[in-house]
Automatic annotation (TrEMBL):
Domain ABC transporter: 269-501
Keyword ATP-binding included in the entry's annotation: yes
Name of the protein described by the UniProt record: ABC transporter domain-containing protein
Membrane topology (UniProt): Multi-pass membrane protein
UniProt main location, coarse: membrane
Length: 617
């Protein structure tokens, strides 16, 4: 009776150890999830970190932290003098069990970092999973052993114990229980004056548990690396079928033909039929785009949200797999030489991939080292980036306290570290004030003047006109137009915008705009009124020569009491809006002029909700 009571108490103690050790490995995934969600992990890969090095560094750090917990558990056992775990023969087995448990369960937790997006949810879920496996597997097998007279249950229990060896939680719990039972047997033998000291490392004792945990550490770590390298995705995912290419604009077709014929071999970035189709979707997010970006060029990529711009960047940087097609950076393919691609690429993601606990200067030091900058030059390079992006005042502050604009400047500075041949900037000026935006534009211009290539996405037409030598407008994953800004305005613009200021016929009277309206509508059939104020009219005139507009307006200037007037070309905004209407789900949405929407910008109203007479293009 004393034997069974002592064994039961020690078994409960073993279960308590399992309970405590279930929370520690679950905590190792928290920071990994945060880095993956904020894209800081991917930005490290783009900066030159090998996935193998990344995971080995994390594993080494986690094992150092786990070793501290192991030392505390062993210290507690020694302090309370638990002979079943601290006797000279059992203490090495206890330390081996605890260390190999950390060795095997830590990489087992790593693949879960791809499943969860909220660290707190992951911690609670993984802790519960560890508790469930560890407590239930150990308790069930221990209880079944008490049925000594039932051979069927004992046989089932032996099979169950062999099957559960794939779980480190069971190996730890069962090993501790076996050590407790062995100590109780040893004490029974001692009462009869006999010595019974079996080797705890024997295979049928704790040896098999240790061996399985040692092997599981390698297996789970390799499995995690295969997931990181998308081994299963690349080898098991079927290739999606492609429909024939739809009609393309002639400029887009010419660029495609140039890529096909090898005319872009000298370009830093070459994109050939790059496509991405997400699982469960029929329409591709990116559909066979082709473009080449030479050195010294800033290429703009425009499109509404969901057009495929960020997906394109994610494929170019290796953040998401490519459904079909290929792209190369400085001659290295993103499919076969992604590590070499990363060495020649800087990347500013759409959302700031920064660590809130590090200062701006520490970020730049870190990424300078990752880029391979010599240690003697790291400080100088970091200071160059700080001065270049105007971060001197905030360099010593933690990045978590930065404003949105300063975070974007820091992200852009990280992308420029190491002078990569290609810099990808995904909406870099979002949230910046006008002064900071201009400052960043000058920094980007200096990159272009250095002979490097820049690919820029933006929703600011002013930014594109200031920086981009060429641009493409993306709709539903395809290029709808491609060329210089002036070329796109001339080819896809709706003519000219005529703005007139009318004076009153007599002092004290309100200006009469009706004769001017009648004149414009009769002289330029099909013109559209964009604005009408107290003394100002603005019309959009299509299909008319610039000389004819000036000739007619000048001839009738005095007759119509026109005080002054101006004629301007259609803006890039209007060209963009015309293409944006083709985006899926946007066909029946009409973009109103700010004045027609009560002074608000970018107001969208469906035709059913707005009077016909108030619609404008």
């Amino acid at each position: 009776m004393d034997f069974r009571l002592t064994t039961s108490v020690d078994a409960v103690l073993a279960i308590c150890v399992i309970f405590a050790m279930s929370f520690i490995p679950a905590s190792f995934v928290l920071y990994l999830i945060q880095e993956r969600v904020t894209k800081a992990k991917h930005l490290q890969f783009v900066s030159g970190v090998s996935p193998l090095v990344y995971w080995m560094a994390n594993f080494l750090w986690d094992m150092i932290n786990y070793s501290i917990s192991t030392a505390m558990v062993v210290g507690i056992f020694i302090g309370f003098d638990k002979k079943c775990y601290t006797s000279p023969t059992n203490l090495p087995a206890l330390i081996s069990l605890l260390l190999l448990y950390g060795w095997s369960v830590t990489p087992m937790m790593y693949p879960m970092s791809y499943v969860f997006n909220v660290p707190s949810t992951a911690y609670v879920s993984l802790s519960c999973i560890n508790l469930f496996i560890g407590l239930n597997s150990s308790a069930i097998t221990f209880i079944l052993e008490l049925f000594e007279n039932n051979r069927t249950l004992l046989k089932f229990n032996e099979l169950l114990k062999k099957g559960l060896l794939i779980f480190p939680h069971f190996c730890l719990g069962r090993g501790l229980i076996d050590m407790a039972m062995n100590q109780a047997v040893t004490e029974v033998y001692a009462r009869f004056g006999e010595e019974h000291r079996p080797d705890p490392f024997h295979w049928d004792f704790v040896g098999k548990n240790l061996a399985f945990m040692a092997a599981e550490g390698f297996v789970y770590f390799i499995l995690n690396l295969l997931i990181q390298y998308r081994f299963f995705l690349y080898h098991w995912m079927p290739e999606s079928k492609k429909e024939p290419l739809p009609y393309e604009d002639e400029d887009v077709a010419q660029e495609r033909e140039r890529i096909y014929k090898g005319g872009s071999n000298v370009d830093i970035l070459q994109v050939k039929d790059l496509s991405k189709t997400y699982m469960g979707q029929r329409c591709p997010a990116v559909d066979r785009i082709c473009v080449g970006v030479p050195s010294g060029e800033c290429f703009g990529l425009l499109g509404v949200n969901g057009a495929g711009k960020t997906t394109t960047f994610e494929m170019l940087t290796g953040d998401t797999d490519v459904s079909s097609g290929d792209a190369s950076v400085a001659g290295y393919s993103i499919l076969t030489n992604i590590l070499d691609v990363h060495q020649n690429m800087g990347y500013c993601p759409q959302f700031d991939a920064i660590d809130e606990l590090l200062t701006g200067r520490e970020h730049l030091y870190l990424y300078a080292r990752l880029r391979g900058v010599p240690e003697s030059e790291v400080c100088r390079v970091a200071e160059w980036a700080i001065q270049k992006l105007g971060l001197s005042e905030y360099a010593k502050r933690s990045a978590g306290t930065y404003s949105g604009g300063n975070k974007r400047k820091l992200s852009t500075a990280i992308a420029m570290i190491g002078c990569p041949a290609l810099v990808l900037l995904d909406e870099p000026t979002t949230g910046m004030d006008p002064h900071s935006r201009r400052f960043l534009w000058n920094s980007i211009m200096s990159v272009i003047q250095d002979g490097r290539a820049v690919v820029l996405t933006s929703h600011s037409m002013e930014e594109c006109e200031a920086l981009c030598t060429r641009l493409a407008i993306m709709v539903n994953g395809t290029f709808k137009c491609l060329g210089t800004i002036q070329h796109l305005k001339y080819k896809f613009g709706d003519g000219y915008v005529v703005t007139m200021k009318i004076r009153a016929a007599k002092p004290g009277m309100a200006p009469d705009l009706n004769p001017v309206e009648a004149f414009l509508e009769s002289s330029f059939p099909g013109c559209v009124q964009r604005e009408k104020h107290y003394n100002t009219l603005q019309y959009e005139v299509a299909s008319s020569s610039l000389a004819r507009i000036f000739q007619l307006v000048l001839a009738n200037k005095e007759k119509l009491n026109i005080e002054d007037y101006s004629v301007s070309q259609t803006t890039l905004d209007q060209v963009f809006v015309n293409f944006a209407k083709q985006q899926s789900g946007e066909e029946d949405v009409i973009v109103l002029h700010p004045r027609a929407a009560g002074g608000r910008r970018d107001v969208k109203i469906t035709p059913e909700k707005f009077p016909e007479k108030m619609k404008t293009r």
